[in-house]
Amino acid sequence: MMPEHVSRQIRRPALRVVVPVILFCTYYPYAWLILSRGTWSSARWTWIKMWPALPGLLSRVMFYHYLPDGLALAGMYFFTVVVVALMIYLASLRTWLFGAVAVLVFLLSALNSLLAYALYRA
């Protein structure tokens, strides 16, 4: 029997697993940019170039819509980096939390992707 003052070892997932899974769950929902049919117009290429910042699209819609495009894109990048880093950190704390965070990130990214698709088609 283990004494009470000795805590159990915490099982943490490896970062070499956490980082690619969280990045996949974050960016895969935007694959419609390259998988959908249609012409490869300059507008489509612009959206493809914005792909790394697209998880921050909601922040642009809510807060940065009145800023010039360059500053708004910088805000989207900032929001994306902060949120993805936070999700990677949370997912790396516990094994059970890794699964929960991955599913949550995928669902929220899919919803944000629907918003992006609606704006792309507009």
Quaternary arrangement of the chains shown? single chain
For the sheet with most strands, the description reads:
none
Structural class: mainly alpha
- The rounded Rg comes to 18 Å
Shape: elongated
How would you summarize this macromolecular structure in one to three sentences?
With 122 residues, the chain is an all-alpha fold.
Q: How does this structure look, described?
A:
The chain has 122 residues and is mainly α. The chain has one domain. Helices cover 69% and strands 0% of the residues. The chain is built from 6 helices and no strands. Helix 1 packs across helix 5, helix 4 crosses helix 5 and helix 5 packs antiparallel against helix 6. The longest helix has 27 residues. It starts with 14 loop residues before the first helix and ends with a helix.
